[in-house]
Amino acid sequence: ENLKAMIEEANSKISKLSAEKSVNHEEAQQFRFAGISQTTMQRKVIDEKEKEIEACLKVNKQLKERTEFLCSVLRGIKGGMVHISKQLDLASIPTPPPPEPPRASNGFGDTGRGTNSMGGIFFPGLLPS
């Protein structure tokens, strides 16, 4: 009977150890394959980012070419404007004098037109003739 009890005890220990072994084996497999799938996922993300970078570089190149084209057009326009301004020679174009500002009245109905050479006001009827 002792022997049977020891066999049963050994069998229960064996079953516990085999269950632990299978659990440990499954965990090891998960770590092993999870690492691979994680690596493949990282590689997949890297590949996607590389594709995005290539697309952005293509757009950047197109924008750079467009900017260079527009700069050359603007340089041509500026050169044309400089040429036209030299041809016109703005100094030789006569311009009318600016209009005189209206003068304020002094309260006697005089608008300042009746002044002598000294800048004072004179009244035509008051001077000796």
Give structural attributes:
rod-shaped; mainly alpha; 129 residues
Q: Can you offer a commentary on this structure?
A:
The chain contains one helix and no strands. The chain has one helix spanning 2-88. It is rod-shaped. The model has no long low-confidence stretch (mean pLDDT 78).
Given the C-alpha coordinates, what overall shape results?
rod-shaped
Describe the sheet with the most strands: none
Secondary structure category? mainly alpha
How far apart lie the N and C ends? 168 Å
- Number of helical elements: 1
- H and E order: H
Could you report the average pLDDT, rounded to the nearest whole number? 78
**Strand content range:** under 5%
Radius of gyration: 52 Å
Oligomer: single chain
Which consecutive residue ranges, at least 5 long each, have pLDDT under 50?
none
**How many β-strand runs?**
0
Helix content: 55-70%
Task: Break the fold down into its secondary structure elements and pairings.
Blueprint: H1 2-88
Q: Would you summarize the structure shown here?
A:
Helix content is 67%, strand content 0%. It is mainly α and 129 residues long.
